[in-house]
Task: inverse folding
C-alpha cells in the first residue's frame, strides 16, 4: 500500500478516515463566518446554487447590520449567528468558509477543524506566519479538509504557466518582474470598514489585502526566494496607517532575481508579469501569455557564439490555454469535490503560509531597513508587528459595502 | 543686454568669443581619438559625408592594428596618430571626438579644451564622478564647445516624452519602472578587447558600457533621485570581473519611486519604460508611447470619489511624435551647428555627470550593501573603485571588432 504525502496532507489516512462519512454525504452544508464584502459575495453565489452539492445553511457576523442584510437577502432556511464559534458548534454545517478580517482566519480554521468541520479560509492565511504555522500544524494532524481561497490559481494563464515551468521545457528561471499596481482604491474604500488598513484590525495594507494572490502565485510559479529587500511606504497615497506602496527585490536559491511592485495608488495600474528563463521569456499581461521561445539554451549559446552581438534564434508564440477561469466558484467546487470524493484542491490550506512569509519578510525588511533572509525570525516579526498594533488608532467605518464583483 | 546661463555655459560670452572664428569657419575639421568599435563607426560616417560641414582630418589610436585599418579604410588625407595628444597638438583639427576607453574621456576632453579645440565625448563622461566634475569645471571656464554623445536623446519618443513632462500636463511623477535588459552580449563580446569589463580597463560593466544612455534619459525625464539601493551582480552570466546584472531601487525628492533593471544576459531582453504621473500612465516600448490619460488628477479623485473601487475616467492614446531619430549623426550635426552658428546641442557635455552619478551610486550601494544618499562621498567611491582596480586582472583581447551598426 503506497502512502502519498503531499503538502503535509496524508491522502491515504485522509481517504480512510473519510470513507464512511463520504458514503453517507451527497452534499456539503456550508456556513460562512464573516459576511462583509467578500463573505456576502460568497453567500449569494452559494445560495444561488452556483456550486453544485454545496448548500448554504448558516452565516455568522459580529455586526448586526450584516445579519439584517442576511435575513433580507439570503434564503429563509439559512441560520444566523452573531458568533462564528456558535455557528461551528451548531451542527448546521459540515464545513465553514472563513471570511472575517485576516487576524481571525487561523483561530476560526483551528476551531472548525478541531470540532470536526472542514474549513476553507479566505486569503491571506493570517497576518503573521507564526500564527499560520500553528494552524498548519493542527491541520496536518486533522482528518478534515483544509483549503484556502487562492482563486487566481484557477486562471488559465497562471495554470498554463505553472504547467510549462513544471514540465522543465523553460529551463532554469533567471529573472522575474511583476508590476501589479492595478489595485486602485480611493480613500472611501479605506474609510468604509473600521478594521481596514489599520495595524491592529488588518495587520497591513496592499500586501495583506490585495496581493496575497500574486504573492502566492509568485511562489507557486518561481518557488520561494531566499532573501528579500523591500521598501514599504505607509500612508503614501491614502489617509491610512499601513503601507499602500511597495517595491521589493528578491533573490532565489539558484541566483535568479526578482522585483515585485504594488500599490493601491496608481490609476490606471498595471498587471504585467515577466519571467525570463534559460529557454526564453514569457510575458503575462492582459490575460495573454506571450512566449519568446529560444531555439537553444541561452547559457550554452553565450559560451559558444562567435559573434559578440549575436542572439539565439527565437520565435514569438501566444501560448494557448484552455480559456477556463472559474475563480471563487472553481475553488469551492474543488473544495466540495475533495470533501465528497477525495479530489484535488485548487490550493491546500497549508500552502497559504508561503505568500504570507513573503509579505512578512517584505514588512520586516522595510521596518528594519535591511535585507531579510528567509526563513526569518518569526518571533521578531510578531514583536515588530505588535509594536505597531499598540499605537494603532481605532477608526469608525462608514459602513459602506461596495460591490466586490470582479475584485479578488 | 541679457545673459542666459544654461547648464553652466554662458551663451553670451561664448557667442562673443567665437564671433571672429565663426566668421572665418565654414566647416569643422574633426579628429577622432580611439577608433575601435564606436570610433571607427563615427569615422566612416563622417568620412562618408553624413554630417554636413564636418570633415574628418585625423584619427588616433594606441593600437597599431587600428591605424592600419584607418589607412586602408579612410580617405587618404586623414592623418594618423599613435597618441591622442599629438592629434590635438597637430593643428589638423578644430574639434575632437573622444571614443577611447571610458577612463580616458575626461583627460582627452580637458587636454583638447585647454588647447583650444572643441570636444565631444562618447558616453559615459568618465568612470567616476570626481574625475568628471573636474572636467566640467574646466569646460565651464573654457570658451570651447563641450558636448557628449547622448544619441538616444535624438529619439523622437524620448524627445516627445521629455516635452510632455516639461509642459506640466502630466502632473507630478509617482513611479518609474525601466526594464532595460535588451543588451544581450555573448562571452566573445567580452573576450574581444583587453580593457573591456575589467575594473582597471573599463571601470564597470553593463552600467558603464551599455546603460549610460538610459541613465541619462532617466535623469533627463525624471530628475535625479535622492537615494538609491542597488544590487549589482558581478560575473553572473559571463566570465568577466564586473557587473552584468543590476536591479536598482530609487527614491526621488517628491517621494516618487523607481526601479531600474538591466543585464547583458537576457535573451531576448526587454526595453520597457513605464512612467506613472498624477494625470495618467505612459508606457514607452517598441518605439511607441502609449498614454493612459486621466480626465482628472488622480490625487484629487482619490480624496473625493464616493465609491471605493471607482477609477478616474481615462482614454488611451498612442502619442504622435515627429518620427525623427537621427542618433549619432544628429548629435554630430548639432555639435557642428553649435560650433559654427551657436545652435543648441543635443546634450551639453556637462550633463554627462548626472547619469554617471547614478551608476556610481548604484555601485556604491551594492559594494557597501546599503542605501546611498545622493550626493554621496565621491572620495569614498574612488577609494572603493581603486580597491577593485588593484586586484583587476589583465586580459588579452582577441582583437575582434564587431560591427556596431544598430548598437548605441
Result:
Amino acid at each position: 500500500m503506497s502512502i502519498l504525502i503531499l503538502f503535509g496532507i496524508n491522502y491515504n489516512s485522509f481517504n480512510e478516515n473519510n470513507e464512511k462519512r463520504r458514503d453517507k454525504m451527497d452534499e456539503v452544508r456550508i456556513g460562512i463566518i464573516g459576511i462583509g464584502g467578500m463573505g456576502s459575495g460568497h453567500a449569494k453565489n452559494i445560495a444561488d446554487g452556483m456550486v453544485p452539492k454545496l448548500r448554504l445553511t448558516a452565516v455568522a457576523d459580529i455586526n448586526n447590520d450584516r445579519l439584517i442584510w442576511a435575513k433580507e437577502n439570503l434564503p429563509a432556511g439559512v441560520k444566523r449567528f452573531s458568533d462564528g464559534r456558535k455557528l461551528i458548534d451548531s451542527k448546521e454545517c459540515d464545513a465553514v468558509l472563513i471570511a472575517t478580517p485576516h487576524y481571525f482566519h487561523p483561530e476560526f480554521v483551528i476551531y472548525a477543524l478541531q470540532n470536526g468541520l472542514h474549513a476553507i479560509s479566505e486569503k491571506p492565511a493570517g497576518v503573521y506566519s507564526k500564527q499560520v504555522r500553528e494552524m498548519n500544524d493542527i491541520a496536518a494532524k486533522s482528518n478534515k479538509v483544509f483549503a484556502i481561497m487562492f482563486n487566481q490559481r484557477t486562471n488559465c494563464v497562471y495554470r498554463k504557466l505553472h504547467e510549462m515551468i513544471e514540465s522543465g521545457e523553460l529551463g532554469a528561471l533567471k529573472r522575474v518582474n511583476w508590476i501589479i499596481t492595478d489595485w486602485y482604491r480611493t480613500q472611501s474604500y479605506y474609510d468604509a470598514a473600521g478594521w481596514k488598513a489599520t495595524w491592529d484590525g488588518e495587520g497591513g495594507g496592499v500586501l495583506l489585502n490585495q496581493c496575497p494572490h500574486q504573492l502566492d502565485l509568485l511562489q507557486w510559479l518561481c518557488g520561494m526566494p531566499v532573501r528579500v529587500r523591500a521598501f514599504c511606504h505607509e500612508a503614501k497615497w491614502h489617509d491610512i496607517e499601513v503601507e499602500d506602496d511597495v517595491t521589493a527585490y528578491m533573490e532565489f536559491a539558484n541566483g535568479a532575481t526578482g522585483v515585485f511592485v504594488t500599490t493601491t495608488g496608481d490609476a490606471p495600474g498595471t498587471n504585467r508579469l515577466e519571467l525570463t528563463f534559460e529557454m526564453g521569456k514569457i510575458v503575462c499581461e492582459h490575460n495573454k501569455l506571450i512566449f519568446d521561445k529560444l531555439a537553444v539554451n541561452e547559457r550554452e549559446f553565450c559560451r559558444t557564439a562567435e559573434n559578440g552581438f549575436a542572439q539565439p534564434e527565437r520565435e514569438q508564440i501566444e501560448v494557448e490555454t484552455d480559456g477556463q477561469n472559474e475563480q471563487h466558484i472553481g475553488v469551492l467546487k474543488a473544495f466540495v469535490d475533495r470533501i465528497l470524493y477525495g479530489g484535488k484542491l485548487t490550493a491546500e490550506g497549508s500552502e497559504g503560509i508561503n505568500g504570507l512569509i513573503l509579505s512578512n519578510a517584505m514588512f520586516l525588511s522595510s521596518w528594519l531597513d535591511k535585507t531579510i533572509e528567509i526563513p526569518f525570525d518569526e518571533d521578531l516579526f510578531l514583536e515588530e508587528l505588535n509594536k505597531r498594533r499598540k499605537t494603532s488608532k481605532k477608526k469608525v467605518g462608514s459602513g459602506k459595502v461596495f460591490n466586490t464583483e470582479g475584485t479578488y
User: Anything to note?
Assistant: The first strand of chain B starts at residue 5 and ends at 6.
